[in-house]
Write a structure and sequence with these properties.
The complex is a heterodimer of chains A (417) and B (297). Chain A has 3 domains: 4-156 and 183-191; 263-299, no CATH class; 304-413, Tumour Suppressor Smad4. Residues 158-230 of chain A have low confidence and may be disordered. Chain A has 417 residues and is mainly beta. Helix content of chain A is 7%, strand content 29%. In chain A, helix 1 packs antiparallel against helix 2 (49-61). The termini of chain A are far apart. Chain B has helices at 50-61, 106-125, 173-176, 182-198, 211-219, 231-240, 252-266; strands at residues 4-5, 8-15, 22-26, 37-44, 71-79, 82-89, 93-96, 138-141, 146-148, 161-162, 229-230, 280-281. Chain B has 2 domains: 4-89, Phosphorylase Kinase, domain 1 (2-Layer Sandwich), CATH 3.30.200; 95-281, Transferase(Phosphotransferase), domain 1. Helices cover 29% and strands 19% of the residues of chain B. In chain B, helix 2 packs antiparallel against helix 7. The longest helix of chain B has 20 residues, at 106-125. The chains are: A mainly beta (417), B alpha+beta (297). The interface between A and B is large, with 75 and 81 residues.
Chain lengths: 417, 297
């Protein structure tokens, strides 16, 4: 692989052999790391090493995932460019999108062509700063510590003749001369970074739940209108808005539930509304659903609501991420999950992405996202709180309280138990 | 000072409750001379950051029409030593449907609600859900008219609702399940009409149980417990409270028309007062469709 591989400092392991590169997070066992290294070495000898390594991993996982919480990624040559294998809480930027297993953790394999840069790092980790031209770090071969890596196109540079000391000024190597026809790709791919802001959709997040002091209040829209303790906006001179009218209920046929929801088993009422298999009446129209109605697959409706300790009510029509900056997560940026931004309670810490609530069919699941402070759960009729292990998942029955960063939310299902 | 909110000198607490405090006040100097105004307290800042609230309020204030007050300004003030979000309007509010004087008869209350429904319709035609229609937000004005008060800071889509304003019994279960729309305000108009005529919310007991239990109950779209209703309003209340949005009146303007017709029918039809209805027909306890036999319509 002529590509340049910059290792990101931090916990974990980065390995490279030929055209095959591996990253594994610190959650993995030494046995897993050793296996990945050995397999990467072996695969690097084959022409389609990326595909070969992915296939061998899939063969293992299909028999049972020995370490579902261990994040790792493997990239190597495939039938069409590079083949990328992701496992567990890991994400990769292929210069056009963030990729990550769904659900998290899980695994996926995907051909990605020849993207530059390709970034691999832990799921939920913030994107690395732009790589600078001239950055000398380049893992050529071997195994080193690292929290991820960036695969970059190797900028073509003049190769000094054998034995030539590049640094010697007497040599006319012209490494630093801008007139040198260095083969920079358009827009200099070496300094491309994933977008820090949402590309697809604005993150749907709440605002921080703290009482701002006077300095935190928004500045007045009009400087002449300072309203006592905080800025005020003058509403008298706002331009008349002319957005589209709201839809009529009679136009709703296609709007319940959200388009693009995964299919789950359920029953339909006589009007065709999709419901939980055990309903006795349709939640959409109220009509009775006869016992024994045949089950079929349909788009997943909203599961219920999350009630936060500040009184906020959030719909669980998709998964959600909870933290101080959930909008940094790629799945929030893509609109696949909802971000619920909260600040930590007094004396607690909350990570940018602290906890996740996933939808699994008609059930919810709580996932710890590995941040300091952890994630806690108190199922209904259980007296005490229990802490999840790092990246652990647990079922979240209706009525459960979950806590992270000193804040508490309660999950309430709209459907029969 | 205790009797000021962001420079507004409070002259009267029209309503001082935990849902939507409503204050009469002298306008601050920065607004120039003019008649007294009304200030609503939308809630402590801690519940929703000002940035989001500002966007929400601004979008509302840009809409003008029948049944809506002329908004003046919104901002952060202090009330009871807590930072709160306030909004003021060029209107002199005397009370609300939640605190209406006894001498205001049911037809007059229905006409006030019809006026608020017209305001809701204007908002809907401008792409906005009010998401907080309840007796507390229908403001009765000194001049005998009525306006629809400020919206909930939660927009009914991203953030569905905030416990407190409106009361949970006035939030459409469809909205609580992430499918709010103009039909949600129409549902709330029906619930408010029920209160106007009977003095009771159609979902009783929600305040007597923990909010978790109350929310859990409402998420499942329970049938309303309708009190006996005058025939003139029974059908519109039942239709508004139908589980199925498609069965509900399609527009708030339709609700307003029907409420005005009901008010006209009830005027002079006998001693109809809030909390007790003469000449009633059984609204029943409701069924899955929201009572009044509309479930399967």
């Amino acid at each position: 692989m002529a590509d340049k591989l910059e290792v990101l400092a931090g916990p974990g392991m980065v390995a490279r052999f030929g055209d095959v590169a591996v990253w594994a997070g610190p959650q993995g066992t030494a046995a897993l790391h050793n296996h990945l290294v050995a397999e990467a070495q072996r695969a690097s000898q084959a022409p389609g090493g990326g595909d070969q390594l992915a296939n061998s991993l899939i063969a293992i996982l299909q028999r049972g995932d020995p370490e579902p919480q261990a994040p790792f990624a493997v990239v190597g040559p495939g039938t069409s460019g590079l083949s990328l294998f992701l496992h567990g809480p890991v994400q990769a930027w292929d210069s056009g999108r963030w990729l990550y297993p769904q659900p998290v953790p899980g695994w996926m394999v995907v051909p990605i062509g020849r993207p530059w840069p390709l970034i691999v790092l832990a799921y939920g980790a913030p994107p690395p700063p732009p790589s600078q031209q001239g950055n000398p770090f380049d893992l050529v071969s071997g195994v080193v510590p690292g929290s991820g890596f960036i695969l970059l196109q190797q900028v073509a540079q003049p190769v000094p003749a054998a034995g030539v000391q590049v640094a010697q000024p007497v040599q006319p190597v012209q490494l630093a001369q801008p007139a040198q026809p260095v083969q920079l790709a358009p827009a200099n791919p070496n300094i491309m970074v994933p977008p820090a802001q949402p590309q697809v959709a604005q993150p749907q997040v709440a605002q921080p739940q703290v009482a701002p002091g006077p300095s935190a209040a928004a500045p007045p829209a009009q400087a002449t209108s300072p309203a006592g303790d905080g800025g005020a906006i003058d509403l008298r001179s706002l331009p008349t808005a002319t957005p589209a009218p709201l839809r009529l209920a009679s136009d709703l046929a296609t709007t319940f539930p959200m388009p693009g929801q995964p299919d789950v088993p359920g029953v339909r009422c006589e009007q065709g509304h999709f419901n939980h298999p055990r309903v006795t009446r349709c939640l959409r129209c109220g009509r009775a659903v006869a016992p024994g109605t045949a089950q079929l697959s349909g788009p997943q409706p909203c599961l219920g609501a999350l009630l936060a300790d500040d009184g906020s009510i959030w719909a669980l029509d998709r998964g959600c991420l909870i933290g101080t900056q959930p909008e940094v997560a790629p799945e929030v940026q893509s609109g696949m999950v909802r971000g619920i931004a909260m600040r930590a309670g007094p004396g607690n810490t909350m990570g940018p992405v602290q906890a996740e609530v996933q939808l699994r069919g008609w059930d919810a699941r709580l996932v710890d996202r590995g941040a300091e402070g952890g994630t806690w759960i108190q199922p209904p009729e259980v007296e005490s709180w229990g802490q999840l292990g790092r990246y652990e998942q647990r079922d979240l029955p209706s009525g459960s309280h979950l806590s992270c960063g000193g804040r508490v939310l309660t999950y309430l299902s709209a459907w029969p138990a | 000072m205790a009797n000021q909110v962001a420079g507004y000198e409070v002259t009267k607490a029209v309503v001082e409750d935990g849902t939507l405090p409503c204050l009469r006040a002298k306008r601050p100097e920065r607004l120039g001379q003019g008649a007294p105004v009304t200030v609503w307290i939308l809630g402590p800042v801690a519940r929703l950051a000002w940035t989001a609230a500002k966007a929400r309020i601004s979008s509302f204030a840009a809409v003008r029409g029948a049944g809506l007050p002329a908004w003046i300004e919104a901002g952060i003030g202090e009330r009871d030593q807590r930072p709160v979000i306030f909004v003021s309007a060029e209107v002199e509010v005397a009370g609300t449907l939640a605190s209406a004087p006894a001498e205001l008869d049911v037809p007059a209350r229905l006409r006030a609600l019809a006026r608020a429904a017209r305001g809701a319709h204007v908002l809907h035609e401008h792409g906005l859900i009010h998401a907080a229609i309840c007796p507390q937000v229908v403001a009765l004005c000194e001049d005998g008219t009525a306006v629809l008060g400020p919206p909930a800071l939660a927009d009914g889509t991203r953030l569905l609702a905030q416990v407190g304003y409106p009361p949970l019994g006035y939030i459409d279960p469809q909205l609580l399940r992430g499918s709010g729309g103009r039909w949600s305000d129409i549902w709330a108009l029906g619930a408010t009409a029920h209160y106007v005529v009977t003095g009771m919310a159609p979902f009783q007991g929600l305040d007597d149980v923990p909010v978790v239990d109350a929310l859990s109950r409402q998420l499942a779209s329970p049938p309303p417990a309708l009190a006996p209703l005058p025939a003139a309003v029974a059908e519109i209340v039942g239709r508004c409270l139908a589980v199925d949005p498609a069965v509900r009146p399609q527009t708030a303007a339709e609700v307003a028309d029907t409420l005005e017709q009901a008010a006209a029918q009830l005027t002079g039809a006998g001693p109809v007062t809030a909390g007790g209805a003469a000449g009633t027909e059984a609204g029943g306890s409701g069924d899955a469709g929201g009572g009044a036999g509309t479930a399967s319509a």
